[in-house]
Amino acid sequence: MEWPNHTEAWRAWREALSGHRMHHAWLFAGKAGLGKHDFALAAARELVSEDGIAQPEGAHPDILVLTYLPKDEKEEKKREEGKPYETKRSISVAQIRQMQQRLNTRPTLGSRRAVIIDPADDMERGASNALLKSLEEPPQGTFFLLVTHRPARLLPTIRSRCRLLRFPTIGADQIERLLAQEAPQASAPDRAAAIAAAGGSFGSALNFLEMDLGEVANALRSLLAEPDTTFEQRGRLTKAIGPRPDRNRIQAILELARALVAEQAATATPQTRPGLVETHAALVELAGQAPTYNFDAGLLVGEIGGLLARATEASERANV
């Protein structure tokens, strides 16, 4: 698909690619669901392509992609069979070491090789330290493309060695057009609800529809609307989320909660805004921790509900 928010990124990338000296490390930054992975793959292909050398249609031997591996052998088998599979929670130091071993050889087809790490902000600490050595002394012809949703989680020394390319959010009209292409079965009201909750992220809007998050969004909004003194709204949220939500659903709900809190904070009074800003920061921290720590899903759902309920109670006190 064609991403409407990539125009400036392509201009900057191709300008650098046509220059005399291409920077060896790039940081593709922006919230989740903005097509950064698609951009990285397409940009890597442009980078490694050379005149007179035939390029494969599918997987490219000179483009290495590091991302979450299957959780265990059972999940690995599912991946091999083309089935949905559960992944590990981070990118390990072993993956970085294995990649570095590959860099000891020359590229297969041409003179350039691209390494994509997605998401780079979910590398283990040891993996980050190992990668830093490659960024400090990059092998000839090797370029690193780091995809990140939360660049502040990366080591400052990694950020300082990368050229930053930011990806903007997408307008509501543009998301509507994309949803009409990618989710034509969704009703107009469902698409409108998805767009309202997405915070400018097409990926979040699509997740909203695919995961049927309408009731979750309503429960979150209810928690933000009035104090939940009887815990009724938190119970409604727990029911809407479901008894055993997987990690992808939890992440989508965290992104949804952040977007709704940010939306409310934008129109809040000076008295109530600080509590919403604090809640948003707590949700950002929780979203960053969730992929890498072994949270109990039920406790995590309770934490989300509790954060929103406390924000509403603080707002009520500020208005007294």
UniProtKB/TrEMBL annotation:
One of its GO terms (cellular component) is DNA polymerase III complex. It comes from the Bacteria. GO terms for biological process: DNA-templated DNA replication. Signal peptide: none annotated. This is DNA polymerase III, delta prime subunit. It comes from Altererythrobacter xiamenensis.
